[in-house]
Amino acid sequence: SFELTQPPSVSVSPGQTASITCSGDKLGNQYVSWYQQKPGHSPVVVIYQDNQRPSGIPERFSGSFSGNTATLTISGTQAVDEADYYCQAWDSYTAIFGGGTKLTVL
Amino acid sequence: QMQLQESGPGLVKPSETLSLTCTVSGGSISSSGYYWGWIRQPPGKGLEWIGTIYYSGSTYYNPSLKSRVTISVDTSKNQFSLRLTSVTAADTAMFYCVRVGFCSGGSCYDTLRYFDLWGRGTLVTVSS
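The joint structure predicted for all components is written out below.
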């Protein structure tokens, strides 16, 4: 299986754009999903299939993919977006998670 | 609206077996559009996939846990379960049951899999 690498932390000012990356050698062959987890809560999917947003997820969340890196972008970041974010992909039938990124909205 | 709810002992002794059940409400576990699975999260740490069961009955497990894990489905009770044997303190974690979606835009493929619904989680502590 492969590894997914995320920065441990990202800081952003309210109203600015936050970008969280997820890199992995085999990522080009897989779709990436992104999960948001707020303290004391279960994770929630915010992006799947690289760039698809589930119903109910604000439009400010978007996903992209280039080369071996997936990126979660939050435009016009709000205080409520402060959370841990995890990327995830599949290696055949094994699910792989990135180590998580703590997004701080300063 | 489908919901998932984990249940089971919150405390397990070292070397014993951890058993958890996930009850599916608001829909049938036999729905052909979903798979089912378990994910855990040690306190203060990241997410770790435990395993997935497909509606064919096939199961796939995290290689690091494969020798100790069993996931099964009981369609009569609309539940699926997790068994983890020979637990140690390192198995202390929040355990989440999850639904795996694999359809998008009317197409369904395993390559589209993602965890589209999570239970609230249940904390299991391994301690004597």
